Amino acid sequence: MARLPVLACFAATLALTLPTVSSAQSDSAAQSLIDRLKPSGSSGTRGIRLPGEAPAPAPVAAPAPVWSAPARPAAPVQEQAATTRPVAPRTAPRETTADAPSVSITVTFQTGSAVLTPEAERALAPLGRALASADLAPYRFRIEGHTDTVGDAAVNQALSERRAAAVRDHLARVYGVPDSRMVAVGFGSAQPLVQTPPQVNEPRNRRVQVVNIGS
């Protein structure tokens, strides 16, 4: 009977500890977006030797040259022409179409609709936490809507504008990101992440792109 209070205390301590671990794990996704959306600064450590680092070795004098009689030239050997061509390095696929710090997020909508689905709201959760953080509070962001090339270009343009506005409104309503820090624009199919012919269903082009536009 004397051990019951100890077990109850342990259970209460465990219950208080678990939410903290879960919260820390969920913030890793937001931190990743913060790192990608925040402008990178210079480290300022060039030319600085860290404590404990061994100094550079002193230069060693070159040995004196030794002169010898010239050797007889060998018979010329005909070299076979190289037939291999240099292989161009493979470039990694683009993640965004912007030069500024930015991220692309796949946000699912019903066909022809600008209403966020439950999957879309879950995908936007790390972004909402990131934009509401103190790290990104000094910056403004452009919320861009993009589509693939399926359908009429004018319809896609209008749809991308409505979807970008839906994302902006969701971030403001649920995560408290001020409207003054977000500008919603639509680009339709004009800026594809993956180049395709017309009328090609490409999920990677149906996305929301968030771009840091400064303070």
Topology overview:
Elements: H1 4-37, E1 102-105, H2 118-131, E2 141-146, H3 153-175, E3 182-188, E4 207-212
Parallel strand pairs: 2-3
Antiparallel strand pairs: 1-4, 2-4
Helix pairs in contact: 1-2, 2-3
Task: Give an account of the 3D structure.
With 215 residues, the protein is of the alpha+beta class. It has a domain of 108 residues: 60s Ribosomal Protein L30, Chain: A, CATH 3.30.1330.60. The protein has 3 helices and 4 strands. It has a 4-stranded mixed sheet with strand order 1-4-2-3.
Low-pLDDT residue intervals, each spanning 5 or more residues: 6-25, 42-55
Radius of gyration: 29 Å
* Proportion of strand residues: 5-15%
Strand order of the largest sheet: 1-4-2-3
* Count of DSSP-assigned helices: 3
Q: Can you tell me the CATH architecture of the domain at 105-212?
A: 2-Layer Sandwich
Task: Summarize the helix and strand pattern as letters.
Answer: HEHEHEE
Based on helices, strands and strand pairing, what is the structural class?
A: alpha+beta
